[in-house]
Amino acid sequence: MEVAGALQLGELAAAFAALPVFPLFDTAYFIVSVLYLKYEPGECGPAPLAARPALRLGAVEMSRKSPFASWLCAMLHCFGSYILADLLLGEPPIAYFSNNSSVILATAVWYLIFFCPMNLFYKCVSFLPVKLIFVAMKEVVRVRKIAAGVHHAHHRYHHGWFIMMATGWVKGSGVALMSNFEQLLRGVWKPETNEILHMSFPTKASLYGTILFTLQQTHWLPISEANLIFFFTMFMIVCKVFMTATHSHASPFAPVESFICPVFFGSISSGDTNHQHGASHEVSHAPPPPAKSKEELNEGTRKRKAKKAE
């Protein structure tokens, strides 16, 4: 029974890994990616020369004022991972745009989400039960892209472990890694939101996943690629669907990271924190200059009277 169950699971994983992602899963990927773009708000910032605050366009306002810029942002959300991966491997960064079917499909999704009459398409795909299905389907594409990125880099660099990991990572989270560049197209510059400094769950999961796929590709992890794709996809689907349904931003890796990171990388001690606070307190509360003595004041008064008399 156990052997039969293992065979059935292996067949299921193999069938799942061979499942084509175009057009059904790619459509879901484009819908969720463009939805996240539409959620980007606008804000006001200080104008350099002054008369009034400079408007930093949100995604909706930009789609009305500059549809071409909005389309470029949407294409970065849909194909940013391919652009970064091609740059890493020394290939033309616009090579994926030769895939006319995908570009036309992503353009159609962008147009329907931003310009459909009465926002009907947006209301349908953003309805939570429907959105959860699309989120789950997007994770299928994400894991396939990680596996494909590692496999592609392994074909070019057989012993380049770090190249494999870098390529798989950007394939899985390239959209987030390009977020600062995408913000520039909307007139927003927020270097403090750098994804490497503040990794979201998909970025961390893509990093951990690409390590697993690299170990599998180099035969250090005794599991088939199909099984690894199946199990890691199930993990990503469960986590992302739960986080989306509960509107949670807490990472499932947080408990493990909070235990491991202080052991291997240390933590900020209270002494260091107090020292930093003490230094800032000393700077902000510098001692006032010494008051002038009575003799100095009288001398200054006499000089002013003499000058006035002259």
UniProtKB/TrEMBL annotation:
Domain of life: Eukaryota
Keyword rRNA-binding recorded: no
Catalysed reaction, written as an equation: K(+)(in) = K(+)(out)
Transmembrane feature ranges: 12-32, 68-89, 96-114, 226-243
Annotated segments matching region Disordered: 273-310
Membrane-topology annotation of the record: Multi-pass membrane protein
Self-association and partners: Homotrimer; conformation seems to be controled by binding to diacylglycerol (DAG).
The protein, known as: Trimeric intracellular cation channel type A
Species the sequence originates in: Mycteria americana (Wood stork)
